[in-house]
Amino acid sequence: MYVCVCFGISDKKIIILTQENKVSDIRSIREITSLGSQCGKCIRQAKNIIEETIAISFEKAS
Question: Cα(1)–Cα(55) distance, rounded to whole angstroms?
Answer without folding.
Answer: 20
